[in-house]
From TrEMBL:
<dbReference type="Pfam" id="PF01420">
    <property type="entry name" value="Methylase_S"/>
</dbReference>
<feature type="coiled-coil region">
    <location>
        <begin position="349"/>
        <end position="376"/>
    </location>
</feature>
<keyword id="KW-0238">DNA-binding</keyword>
<feature type="domain" description="Type I restriction modification DNA specificity">
    <location>
        <begin position="198"/>
        <end position="367"/>
    </location>
</feature>
<dbReference type="InterPro" id="IPR052021">
    <property type="entry name" value="Type-I_RS_S_subunit"/>
</dbReference>
<keyword id="KW-0175">Coiled coil</keyword>
<dbReference type="InterPro" id="IPR000055">
    <property type="entry name" value="Restrct_endonuc_typeI_TRD"/>
</dbReference>
<comment type="similarity">
    <text>Belongs to the type-I restriction system S methylase family.</text>
</comment>
<dbReference type="GO" id="GO:0003677">
    <property type="term" value="F:DNA binding"/>
</dbReference>
<dbReference type="InterPro" id="IPR044946">
    <property type="entry name" value="Restrct_endonuc_typeI_TRD_sf"/>
</dbReference>
<protein>
    <recommendedName>
        <fullName>Type I restriction modification DNA specificity domain-containing protein</fullName>
    </recommendedName>
</protein>
<dbReference type="GO" id="GO:0009307">
    <property type="term" value="P:DNA restriction-modification system"/>
</dbReference>
<keyword id="KW-0680">Restriction system</keyword>
<feature type="domain" description="Type I restriction modification DNA specificity">
    <location>
        <begin position="4"/>
        <end position="169"/>
    </location>
</feature>
């Protein structure tokens, strides 16, 4: 196994391939951070043949600009219309000399954490506009085993890719299944046989009072997110912009629902498992005794209900829309009459979420295992029998 420069076995940003008729077009957003092409557009060759990056089947794309490069954007290209494609000028195109290196083996090297780490160090340009220069890729050295060993390594890593892809598809199916269940169970279209009484239409002010308790400066700081609801502020990977003076921060208790007053129309709400304080920008809802707040937290994620939040929000443009409690409390919803039925419905979704969470943990384990395997196989630490 020898150590070689990429420029000695590949062409970087080669001349475009001529074509006629339709070709594929790939934008930066069409490429995932784990090396997959999510979408290809169909374009006329004449419309895109100048002013864009040009590539063909079996080329490897590498995002050159920050933060796309650091995030891992890039892809192995195949299945292009007429075998030719064009795309964002922010791609470097790397074409393998397949007499020396397999394109897919090259792709794994350029998608490896080590390559990205050293590329980030060698970026040039001003903040926000830094790019990986062509000469960094040209001079970057990789381990080059025999073609037979390259084939074996590609086979192994492709097996992990397939396992990851199948796990992601399973997660999406579970999410779609839950979405369908929510539509049927939260609308009353499907009901459990033991509940016979008619559902009731109420105003949300009959289900929740606003909690406006301040001055609890020693309580833990919490945040409310779109995906995970109420979480500890330390779990959110963003800069802490909270005020030093927490005297006006609002107290939230387990069982309360908090929502972002300016983003409730985007579904930013969640049930709290914690006692803590949140920014004054949030509205805190305290449930009445006959209300299962877990059930209501799922109801608040239904598109039809989110649309109601949008219609009742005040403001001239989306940036200024807000749903204060005074407007929230007048919104009408239809819910199960008994708290027992509310709870049983909520429990179904809790079980769905547990299944999805388990599958997502398994997915993360697969990705970590693949990353470790790549590191060992591509550096020669782990050799395969040929």
């Amino acid at each position: 196994m020898s150590l070689v420069r990429i420029k000695d076995i590949c062409k970087i940003n080669p001349q475009k391939e001529k074509a006629t008729g339709k070709v594929s077009f790939i934008k930066m957003e069409d490429v995932s951070i784990d090396g997959r092409i999510l979408n290809k557009e169909e374009k006329n060759y004449e419309d895109v043949s100048t002013g864009f990056s040009a590539f063909k089947d079996k080329d490897v794309l590498v995002a050159k600009i920050t933060p796309c490069f650091e995030n891992g954007k890039g892809a192995y290209v195949d299945g292009l219309l007429n075998g030719v494609g064009f795309g964002s000028t922010e791609f470097h195109v790397v074409r393998a000399d397949e007499r020396k290196i397999l394109s897919k083996y090259l792709f794994y090297h350029l998608n490896c954490k080590t390559f990205r780490k050293y590329g980030e160090i060698n970026m040039t340009g001003s903040a926000g506009q830094k790019r990986v220069p062509k000469d960094f890729i040209e001079k970057y050295k990789i381990f080059l085993p025999s073609m037979t060993e390259q084939e074996k390594i590609v086979e192994i890593l492709s097996t992990w890719d397939l396992a990851i892809e199948k796990q992601e598809q399973l997660i999406e199916k579970k999410k779609e299944f839950k979405k369908g269940l929510m539509q049927r169970l939260l609308s009353g279209e499907f009901r459990f046989k033991e509940f016979k009484d008619k559902w009731k239409t109420i105003k949300l002010g009959e289900a929740f009072k606003e909690r406006k308790e301040t001055g609890f400066i020693d309580l833990e700081l919490l945040a409310i997110t779109t995906a995970n609801g109420v979480v500890r502020r330390t779990e959110v990977d963003v800069k802490d912009t909270s005020s030093e003076d927490k005297s006006k921060y609002k107290r939230i208790l387990p069982g309360d629902i908090g929502y972002n007053t300016m983003r409730m129309w985007q579904g930013v709400s969640g049930l709290s498992k914690y006692e803590g304080i949140v920014s004054p920008a949030y509205t805190i809802l305290k449930p009445m005794d006959n209300i299962n707040s877990l059930y209501m937290s799922y109801l608040f994620k239904v598109p039809k209900i989110i649309n109601l939040f949008y219609r009742h929000s005040q403001g001239l443009v989306s940036d200024t829309l807000n749903l204060k409690y005074e407007n929230f409390k007048g919104i009408k919803v239809c819910i199960p009459n008994s708290i027992e039925e509310q709870k049983k419905i909520a429990d179904v979704f809790v079980n769905c979420d547990k299944e999805i969470e388990l599958l997502e943990k398994e997915l993360e384990a697969l990705k970590l295992q693949k990353k470790g395997l790549m590191q060992r196989l591509l550096t020669g630490e782990l050799r395969v029998k040929v």
